[in-house]
Amino acid sequence: MELYDTGNVDGAEEVVAPNVIDHNPATEAVSGIDGMRASIAAVRDGFTGTEHRILVQQEFPDGWVVLHWQMTGTHTGDTFGVPASGNPVDINGQDIMRMVDGKITELYHVEELLKPTQQISGGTQSA
User: Which among 12, 42, 64, 122 is placed 20 to 30 Å from 87, CA to CA?
Assistant: First the structure.
């Protein structure tokens, strides 16, 4: 999560295996560590002042880790083709990762996208 907050794409090698398998890549995302770098850069370029908070973290046998997280920030750059709005956003998500030798080798993730889409467009949020 720290890499997303700092925008440090070069730091990906420290925590992500070169051949990481992302089971839910963004449309047209490249695979492996380059896809993770692109994801970090997309958050860095689309939002400022990002802060990720880990709401729940649980480790399981065989290296599996589950995270429930929240990201807050301000939409100040183009994000997936949507021009900057200047609006604050908060996004929740869940990651299921397999760790081997201290690096992410496999990743499943889900992000709450309706709420931030409404926040970016200035619409109302649903509870």
Answer: 12
